Amino acid sequence: MIRIAFTLVVFLIGTSSALGDAPPWCEIGSEEQFCEHIVRVTVGDIDNESAHSPGGYADYTLELATEMAQGRQYQITVVGAEIFPGDCVGAWVDWNQDYMFDDSPGSAEKVFFDVSSGPGPYTGTVVVPQDAPLGTPWLRVRLAFETVAPCGVTRYGETEDYTIVVVPGTCCTGPSRGNVDGSPDNLVTMSDLTEMISHLFILMHPARCNDEGNVDLSVDGMVTMSDLTVLIDHLFISLDPLPPCP
Fold it and tell me: SS3 for 185-231, per residue?
C-alpha cells in the first residue's frame, strides 16, 4: 500500500454535557481503518492500548477519564500502527467549550504539533489555561490520511474519544513547594524565608500562595510557624527536599 503523506492528529473537544454525552453536531469515522489505526494513547491517568475499531471510531468516554488542573501541564503520547513517512501529530483543545477549534498560530487551543516520521511514539504537552472552564471536555485522538479535521469521515484512520475532567488549579508553580516570594526560577532561597517571616510576624500581609507556603502539608493549607520550621530545616539543617506542588 503506497502513501504519500499521513497525518496523526489529537483533538480535545470541550463540552458542557454530562460525562459520556456525545456532542450532537459532529460526524466522525473512517472508511478503511484497518491499515492505519491507533494502538496506544497515554495522558494523565489514561493509558489505553487498543486494536482497530469498527467504522474507525471508539468511544471510551464512559470508561476512561483523567483530571487536568487549571494552569498545569500534561504529557500526551500517541502510538499508531503502520505509520508512513510524513506522519505528524497535533492536538487542539476547545477550552472555552464553544464547539469550535481555534487553529490559528499562537492560539491556546492549538496545543501540540509534531511532524516526526515513523511509528512514534509522538509525545507532546497539553497546557491547561489557568482560566479554563471547569467541566468534562472530550479528548479526541484522531489518526487520518492527508487531511485532518475534528469532525467528518475520512478514508483511512481511526478516532478515539476520552473524557477529561478540568478541576481547579493551584498557584504553586513547582516542581516543589516553597517558592514563597514567587521568583520566576522557582528556586527556594533566603528570599522565600524572608517573605514567610514578613507574612507571619512583620507586615502580616496575606500569603501570595498558600500552596507554596504550606510546606508542612497541613490539612487546612494555611501558612504557619510549622511551615517556617520546615523551610528553615530545608535551607540550613537537614537540606531535605520540600514536598511537590499539589
Answer: CCCCCHHHHHHHHHHHHHCCCCCCCHHHHCCCCCCCCCCCHHHHHHH
